[in-house]
Amino acid sequence: MIKKNVCLQSEERICKNMESEDIQKLQESEERYRNLFETMTLGVVYQDVKGQIISANTAAQEILGLTIDQMQGRTSTDPRWKSVHEDGSDYPGKTHPAMVALKTGKIIKNAIMGVFDPKYKQTRWIKINATPQFRKNEKKPYQVYTTFEDITKRKKSDEALNESEEKFSKAFHSNSAAMTVTRLNDGLIIDANESFETLFGYTHEETVGHNTNELGIWLDPQERDAKVEQLLKQGKLPLHEVTFGTKTGKNINVLFSVELIHIKGKTFILTTSMDITERKKVEERNQKLLESEQQLTEELKTSNEELLVTTEELQIVNEELVHQGNKLLKINKALRESEKHFHDLADNIPNLAWMADETGWIFWYNTQWYDYTGTTPEEMQGWGWQKVHHPDYVGSVTEEWTSNIKAGKAYDNTFPLKGKDGNYRWFLTRVTPIKDEQGKVLRWFGTNTNITELKRVQKRNQKLLESEQLLTEELTTSNEELQATTHELQDANEELHHNEDKLLQAYNDLKTSEESFRGIIENIQDAYMRADKEGTIIMASSSAARMYRFNLTQEMLGTSTLSYFKNSEDRDFAIEKLKKHGKYNDYEVEARRNDGTFFWVSQNAQYYYDNHGEIQGYETIVRDITQRKKIEAALKKSERSLDKAQQIAHIGSWEWNIKTGDISWSNELYSIYGVDPNSFTPTLSSFGDYMHPDDEEYVNQHVDQLLSEGKPHNFDFRIVLDDGSIRVLNTLAEVARFDKNGKPSMIVGINQDITERKDIELKLNENITKLAQSNKELEQFAYITSHDLREPLRMITSFLQLLERRYNDQLDQDANEFIGFAVDGAKRLDAMTKDLLQYSKITTEKRDIKPVDFEYVLEQALINLKVPIEKTNAVITHDPLPIINSDEHLKVQLFQNIIGNAIKYHSKETPKIHISAIKENNQYLFSIKDNGIGMSPEHLKRIFTIFQRLHTNEEYEGTGIGLSIVQKIVHQQGGQIWVESEIGKGSTFYFTIPIE
Ligand code: ADP
């Protein structure tokens, strides 16, 4: 039985040959294996060629959570496995290790797979090896067995580990403290975070793979080793202060901690450094503050003590003050008492009384006042007293009061005051100022004494007096009547005398009147003449003789008034008028004097009549108006010239009377506005009507300002004429008169038509811009051409020189000479382009302005001119030269060019050149004087023009650009240049350099 059992069908042949002993051994071995199979912790599953499970050991059943019955017959592709890869993706049955091993015949190792454990309802992770099994001589496996271990737990702890490592890594890299991880065995840093880079200045690459001593972080390298030793003992060094060095060499204070950590079974050192340099500084500052606070406290203590002393002193002063105060109080009390006395007194006197301050403001009345007037203190205070005065008197009373307040004088006045019954009574008022020692009025004291009674008595007295007089008179009359008859005789006698006297009196009166009349005539300035009907003068004032230049008035009598007219037409016109109206007035006419000269007069003439109304002749009054006429003529003339001037200057003037609104324009203003003065009346709105709409607001602003501030305003605005054309006017407006309140009442202004000027200005600006542009372009052009020309020129020169060298012996004399000319020409062209380039560079290159020592400038120029100086033995002297803000490089060139010329254009004598500089206002005037050949004065201006030379190249080599460069350098800094020279007498070049 057993034998049969162990012999499988396919092995029957072998089995047959087996000895029973062998079978025994085999059986034992099989048993051992089977036990092993069943007891091993690895799961083992056999699958046939189709993948169906044939058998599985106990471990497999436990791991997969299935019984052998549940498993047998199940294939790898069975969906119930719910197999997955590690990343959670589906693990199809066809790709299971067993299936792959069957298919490929190869062993599959360490495949990781998750399968669903129905017992615990969770995924179980297994690591699988699949081994295909072959029958002898067969290439395809007939079955496969898989062994697998349960790695669920390990996987979970792996994941946890990963997670915690990730957390660590995050904490490590994002930490604000500088951190490193160092391998314990070799001390090399394997990682450092960003904060470490920032704090210590080493990049990640510079840090990793090095130890901290290599980086020089430890100030004392031995300190590191000591720390490591301590760390190994304690497993951790808590936070403590350390000073480290950084890459830049700066020392920093850090709070430093170290601990051992374990990553994936290995031990590392984790360091943490927190920068506390700032904190240290703050701490130090705090310390200092604390110290200064202490010091302050000390000082305060001292000053406090001092204060205590002062307080004591103050207390003494205080006591004194209190003492004084008590005294004052006493005085005050006494004063108050005396005031009360006064008030009592005042209230008990029979008069009304009052008191006012120095301005006359009444602040107190006695009770009698209020009793009499029936008023209250509120009504009366200040100037309220006027209410109880009679309207006819209040004016004069007030006037007298105020004038005496001003004068500070006492005075009396009498006037009626209204009582509370409404009746007025007469009061005598006496007002006295109360003054201080300096005589300044402090108050006024007044009393009003009722004098109505007095007045009444006075009136009665008057009446008595009158009746007494009447009586006396009556007595006298009766007495007189008695005497009368006696006198009648006497009277008749007297009358006779009297009539005689009357006659005399009448004569005298007439005489007096005639004299006074004559006096008037004689004393008037105007000429008076009386003529008969024919015009013959019968009477003339001496002023008439003077006016018409007669020596004596008599000479004038008998002459005809008609002869004093200059023109006969005027005379006839006057006669006509007189005949028609009997008189004429203010007739202005030219008159003739006795000496034949003419003058302007204004005549008034009228007939005079006799007692019967018959015309007797006429009287004329003549006034000399020469002066007025002259002024009028001058005025006309000046008006005309003003008109003319305005016309020429296109200036119109105007006046605006703000009070009446009247506006007047000068003639030219009408013409500027293109309107006819005969039909156009300017008004305030005329300005607005013609104003360009865009300018209205701005002009109104100016006008408003002018009216409110009263200051002159000058501004431009545009007007649109009737024909649509636009003119630009400049206006200057100012206040000509202010009213009483200081408000402008009259504005005057001038408007100038500046349209053409504006146009020209615009065009000029345009032209300047264009000119500047074209200048710039020209300079650019000169620069580019001179720069670019030099290259081909050099080529020509060098090839010509090559030709000369190589073919010298093959060419004839002429050819060689021609080549020589060509070389010379090319060289000159090269020199010219070089100079031109330099010329154009002056404006194109950036200038370097700084204080420049002109002694140094001269020195440099002379170094550059070493060769010609030595060749000619030139003697160059100079005065002290200044330091000026300038461009050194260009100024060396300036000196070099002028001095170079002075040497080049030397005469037969040894060249002597002298340089000097003098300060004038805000510039230096330089001069460079030589004793060379000189120049004819008419060419002096030309030499500064580019390419202008006074000599041929055969005489003196040159390009004609040197002085143009010089001029440009001088002009560029705002200076001037000129030369003074005569042939044979040397030349002096002058130029100025502004100081700023
Ligand atoms: P260049 O010297 O190259 O001809 P410049 O512009 O420097 O050109 O001078 C222009 C001309 O002015 C010269 O050709 C020369 O005739 C005249 N000139 C300049 N400096 C002097 C001088 N110091 N004495 C006489 N002539 C001079």
Can you give a write-up of this model?
- By secondary structure, this protein is an alpha+beta fold.
- β18 (583-592) and β19 form a beta hairpin.
- Adenosine-5'-diphosphate is lined by residues 901-902, 905, 930, 932-935, 943, 949-951, 958-964, 987.
Record keyword descriptors for this entry.
binds adenosine-5'-diphosphate, alpha+beta, disordered N terminus, extended
Instruction: Give the neighbour order of strands across the main sheet.
Output: 2-1-5-4-3
The hetero molecules present are: adenosine-5'-diphosphate
| Proportion of residues in helical segments | 40-55%
For the termini, the CA-CA separation is 133 Å
Walk me through the topology.
Blueprint: H1 2-6, H2 12-17, H3 20-39, E1 43-48, E2 53-56, H4 58-64, H5 68-71, H6 97-104, E3 108-117, E4 122-134, E5 141-150, H7 152-173, E6 178-183, E7 189-192, H8 194-200, H9 204-207, H10 212-215, H11 221-234, E8 236-245, E9 251-263, E10 266-275, H12 277-348, E11 352-357, E12 362-365, H13 367-373, H14 377-380, H15 391-407, E13 411-418, E14 424-435, E15 441-450, H16 452-523, E16 527-532, E17 537-540, H17 542-547, H18 553-556, H19 568-581, E18 583-592, E19 598-609, E20 615-624, H20 626-649, E21 651-657, E22 663-665, H21 667-673, H22 684-690, H23 696-709, E23 713-720, E24 726-738, E25 744-753, H24 755-806, H25 813-844, E26 849-853, H26 854-864, H27 866-872, E27 875-878, E28 883-887, H28 888-904, E29 912-920, E30 923-929, H29 962-972, E31 977-981, E32 987-994
Parallel strand pairs: 27-29
Antiparallel strand pairs: 1-2, 1-5, 3-4, 4-5, 6-7, 6-10, 8-9, 9-10, 11-12, 11-15, 13-14, 14-15, 16-17, 16-20, 18-19, 19-20, 21-22, 21-25, 23-24, 24-25, 26-28, 29-30, 30-32, 31-32
Helix pairs in contact: 24-25, 25-29, 26-28, 28-29
The structure holds adenosine-5'-diphosphate.
The site of adenosine-5'-diphosphate has 20 residues, from α28 and α29.
